[in-house]
């Protein structure tokens, strides 16, 4: 097992070893309250879950953040355009959670389309995400609470090697 943040070459065999992040059946821990009230008193039906956006890395012109909502071919075309017509010799493809597999697939498709001219280097990390739990009925005594959780992320450097 590689340590978090390790850099390793990506190949077809690494793709089959990639895990589906966020697909485990383990129960999530109870939410933590900012005000110190007991989590056992919280009824999940009475709260609305609002997921905050994750903290992003600095947005550079050659960064591509992959998600599951945008069409795969559109994201692949955007990456190809950056490498071919954008004047970039390298791009960084970022994937979070369920989008990890899609980020890996995009990088491998780019490499296959270049007939091996492109090389890949991947880093993994863990990102802390924050969820807000807001009471559905503001008249009740329920206070807003926050819950933190961890999610896996991948950052793949797709580049032309130096001649």
From TrEMBL:
SUPFAM superfamilies given in the database record: AlbA-like (SSF82704)
Keywords recorded for this protein, A-Z: Cytoplasm, Nucleus, rRNA processing, tRNA processing
One example GO MF annotation: nucleic acid binding
Skewed-composition ranges (Acidic residues): 133-142
Statement: the UniProt record of this protein carries the keyword Cytoplasm: yes
Compartmental location: Cytoplasmic granule; Nucleus, Nucleolus
Keyword Magnesium: no
Superkingdom per UniProt: Eukaryota
Gene Ontology annotations of biological process type: rRNA processing; tRNA 5'-leader removal
GO CC aspect terms: nucleolar ribonuclease P complex; ribonuclease MRP complex
UniProt region (Disordered), positions on chain: 18-40, 133-154
Transmembrane segments: none
Family: Belongs to the histone-like Alba family.
Known function: Component of ribonuclease P, a ribonucleoprotein complex that generates mature tRNA molecules by cleaving their 5'-ends. Also a component of the MRP ribonuclease complex, which cleaves pre-rRNA sequences.
Quaternary structure annotation from Swiss-Prot or TrEMBL: Component of nuclear RNase P and RNase MRP complexes. RNase P consists of a catalytic RNA moiety and 10 different protein chains; POP1, POP4, POP5, POP7, RPP14, RPP21, RPP25, RPP30, RPP38 and RPP40. Within the RNase P complex, POP1, POP7 and RPP25 form the 'finger' subcomplex, POP5, RPP14, RPP40 and homodimeric RPP30 form the 'palm' subcomplex, and RPP21, POP4 and RPP38 form the 'wrist' subcomplex. All subunits of the RNase P complex interact with the catalytic RNA. Several subunits of RNase P are also part of the RNase MRP complex.
Full protein name: Ribonuclease P protein subunit p20
Species name: Oryzias latipes
Organism ancestry: Eukaryota, Metazoa, Chordata, Craniata, Vertebrata
